[in-house]
Here is the input.
Amino acid sequence: MAKELKDLTKRAENYSQWYNDLVVKADLAEQSAVRGCMVIKPYGYAIWEKMQRCLDDMFKATGVQNAYFPLLIPKSFLSREAEHVEGFAKECAVVTHHRLMNDPNGKGVVVDPEARLEEELIIRPTSETIIWNTYRNWINSYRDLPLLCNQWCNVMRWEMRTRLFLRTAEFLWQEGHTAHATSEEAQAEAIQMLNVYADFAERYMALPVVKGVKTANERFAGAIETYTIEAMMQDGKALQSGTSHFLGQNFAKAFDVKFINQENQLEYVWATSWGVSTRLMGALIMTHSDDNGLVLPPHLAPIQVVIVPIYKNNDQLADIDAVVNPVVDRLRNLGISVKYDNADNKRPGFKFADYELKGVPVRLVLGPRDIENGTVEVMRRDTLEKHSAPLEGIEEYVKNLLEAIQQNIYTKALNHRESMTYKVDTWDEFKEQIEKGGFLLAHWDGTTETEEKIKEETKATIRCIPLDAEEEEGKCIYTGKPSKRRVIFARNY
Amino acid sequence: MAKELKDLTKRAENYSQWYNDLVVKADLAEQSAVRGCMVIKPYGYAIWEKMQRCLDDMFKATGVQNAYFPLLIPKSFLSREAEHVEGFAKECAVVTHHRLMNDPNGKGVVVDPEARLEEELIIRPTSETIIWNTYRNWINSYRDLPLLCNQWCNVMRWEMRTRLFLRTAEFLWQEGHTAHATSEEAQAEAIQMLNVYADFAERYMALPVVKGVKTANERFAGAIETYTIEAMMQDGKALQSGTSHFLGQNFAKAFDVKFINQENQLEYVWATSWGVSTRLMGALIMTHSDDNGLVLPPHLAPIQVVIVPIYKNNDQLADIDAVVNPVVDRLRNLGISVKYDNADNKRPGFKFADYELKGVPVRLVLGPRDIENGTVEVMRRDTLEKHSAPLEGIEEYVKNLLEAIQQNIYTKALNHRESMTYKVDTWDEFKEQIEKGGFLLAHWDGTTETEEKIKEETKATIRCIPLDAEEEEGKCIYTGKPSKRRVIFARNY
Here is the structure.
């Protein structure tokens, strides 16, 4: 067994440590020399690239175009929107100078005091301000609308406690920013992008999510309404996986973006913004993986199939190569990414453990007896089950198996979520259940005050009001005041 | 004629202004509210995305993997490599604080003096330092080599005089950073990536380039050898379009990156780095475009074919739609990106001028008479020639035409460069010719002193010593000292 695998903490021992270990040992990411900033290693980045490609195609299918806006934002821009500044201006990286000079008192370099900027610049924590300042010049008439832009970029928020992928000072994300002629159209856009995110999470990440709306307290700073997709991790905690905001006319007013409508009247533009980030990597890792390492959904795995030969000498290897090489070609022709690992500097046992750690969905093993019998040993990573299959037609077999694995891990995650989702009707029940984790469906009186008290006492927050919540008369779990529907409480990442 | 086009400065009047006008009017990019930082607009970004995709595939075909390293670099890292700090530490964005606070004396926000960083952080001007600091932990033995990483990211250099795409404070680029066990292997890698860049420039951008090596004076700060591809713009000035550096063991020594070689000895690792940036957009625009607007190479054009219908009423449009829609499908099946612009809110003349301005390589126009005759009017953007072609088989015709245009604009650019490349043997000739622009092939005595004097007197720099320069006895154009080969002098962007 590979050393890396032996050192992996078990989930039951310490779920949090298991996650940290796994991210590092599976070569996904690591801490950098800069506080709170991570290095995304090639294997982790390959998964992120696959996510990007899928999402980008989905965005473009709705008419969105990519663009690029500046990294730096003038400090004063943040103050334009009253709520936005409260949310984002506090913990951020501030550029104050534009030059270094040789240290007159020694070696090395120091900041040149003469190169102080007139106005400080902030590294973007999100780009509503700089983008709406730009949109002012792009939008004149209803004919310029809708304007649907997205950018893939880095952003920075000076987080105090960071965790790889889940919460880092710098992270990679996409941020969509759209401008519309009517409130209805902007709201429909916000919902459409929420649906794109949910669809992506479920179809590609095999991640079941609850679509809902945030309470006022949890809203994006500057939004009228924030929609969210919430996922449940294996420890029963929630992970907010993507948000889509209806911004009303808040940023249009802050940056004076008006258009001439079809009735020839000047009106402020309506806005949305929406984003997902490298945090999705954290959700992906935590949802499916096990004590042997990563479990990757076939639709996002950089390597979908690995083939390992078992041989005692070069003649045996040559025989296996002759059988495997055409299989590799045929798998690739089916669009399946496959690695044939016939390197002779590692033992098969080491390779097995390593590919399990890396979450490769399907492993094929061939030895001399398989060649004789026309068989191959198939191992599926999700269940770790092994069995023998005929070599003849193995490509179609593998293709179907990959789809089966994709479906199976989705179902497994969905069953897990359902098994840890509870209707809770008394405060005692609530306090008891929240300690065990899970989603608590409970009535709430609709006030921020109650929400904050519950959070103080239990560390549970309202993850969302599900979009499909049924109307139901009830009493607030905390105050007993009337409520019309249940909301989802949970502890969260 | 569209207003935008009428306002476009002519190249002969003011080449520099023509370029600036074109970038803005063709919706490629614009200045932002932040000094020296540009906004890349959707049409410009779509071209950049195509470039990225092609280059990324070419890198990966050589075994390179993508990764991501932090935006911010500790100030002290820059001082580790003596030459590197001279080249990059001077004009850069310095992060000194991590928090803003409400202004106690009024509205808005100010820097919180208590949130001063212990060590200032620099926004990366290039990432050798942070990457080699990371590689120290990734490399132990020759088995870990070669290590071939690339990242697509933003970088920042505080330029005083900026021009859209050509020189901006923030720009997008890729930077490859490779680590090798031997000097020979690293040098071969640097040359291999230079060839990838040249190949990309010629095959996709239709941009002929000279491959060469930089003089000591023009080398990347910290490199042993800098290789470059140099292109000539229409005004005869040179544009450095990509560089690839052999870094020797300089960064390995600065960051203490050693490996155990096959002889079981500890040795410093050998390095390369190589990059191209959004500057390539400037090269693309300046090389092929004309007084009517952009001319885009078909291999990088976001829209390769536009189809415009000419009609007087809805019946006529319906007839044209019925003919065009299947043509659109068949073109797309051939992998050609096509836009059928049957919007009725703009006149055909406006559309024609707009697509010319945007550089769409092929325009097809159909009116009622074409439908009757089974013909279509074909306009190619590179020559602006129009002719009638049979509708039958138009897809294959267009496909071939796109390749012909790609070839034609490459040949045109190559002929232009050759017509403006001169062998110059006297200093008087040199001074006269440099005023007219072009590449001057001249002998040089090999000293930095002479190079700098020539630059002072003529603003010409040595663009490169061409890799294929013939050995030839000669005398330095400036000092008369002996020289063994000609180098390329030019004024440059």
Remarks:
- Chain A touches chain B through 63 residues (CB under 8 Å).
- Residues 394-419 of chain A form the longest helix (26 residues).
- The mean pLDDT of chain A is 96.
- DSSP finds 15 helices and 26 strands in chain A.
